[in-house]
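The step that takes the researchers longest sounds almost clerical: writing a folded protein down as plain text. The outcome of that step, for a single protein, is printed below.
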Amino acid sequence: MHSSKLIFILLALLASQTVFAQDTALQNATTELTSDVSTSQSSDLDEEDEDLKKRKLEIGIILTAGIFLVGLFLVAVTLIYGRRTRRQIAAGRGPSQARDELWYLKHAKSQPAENESDETQEETK
């Protein structure tokens, strides 16, 4: 799921870099065309504008389809996970263990035998 977000971000970045590169190329071409104005160059500019519009439209359609597919993937994952969780809850947790009703009381510590005294205490005496 985390990787799908990463893939989507990478696609968006690649598409935006392509569009910006095309815009820069178009601006450079426009600058060159303004210095050498002629009728044949203006028709080339119109063709380039149409090509650029088509490319932007294609990129937009691809990005929209990507968003749609990621959304469908997320819905499918949610449905699968929900069904799995519902099945686990319906199955139950199995038999429970007997409860200790005096769980809050301290347990009695076992007293060490008198002949098993701690050696460190004997040394300090």
